[in-house]
Amino acid sequence: MATVGLALALMLVLEGIMPFAAPAKWREMFSRLLELSDGQIRFIGLALILSGFGVSLLFL
Q1: The dihedral formed by the CA atoms of 30, 31, 32 and 36, expressed in degrees to the nearest 10
Q2: Were 19 and a residue from 26, 33, 34, 50 both cysteine, which residue would form a disulfide, CB within 3.0 to 4.6 Å?
């Protein structure tokens, strides 16, 4: 369970870097995201999930 907590903490740190370092670019990125269709957003989500599984397999 400690590993899951550490992974969550690392994810939060990495997710927080962009809005902290460049809030205007972060806001611009989200405004572009609103222009995508549901299918495009789902594809991005699937690609991220598969990438995460792939990276996790490297560490097993």
Answers
A1: 90
A2: 26
Identify whether the C-beta of residue 30 lies closer than 8 Å to the C-beta of residue 36.
no
CA 60/CA 56 separation, integer angstroms? 7
How high is the pLDDT of residue 4? 87
DSSP-assigned letter for residue 34? T
2's tokens: 């400690």
As given in the structure block, the two tokens for residue 36 are 């995508």
Residues 6+ apart with CB under 8 A from 19: 26
Predicted confidence (pLDDT) per residue in 13-59, tens digit: 999 999 999 999 999 998 999 999 999 999 999 999 999 899 888 88
Determine the Cα–Cα distance for residues 19 and 27; give it in Å rounded to an integer: 8
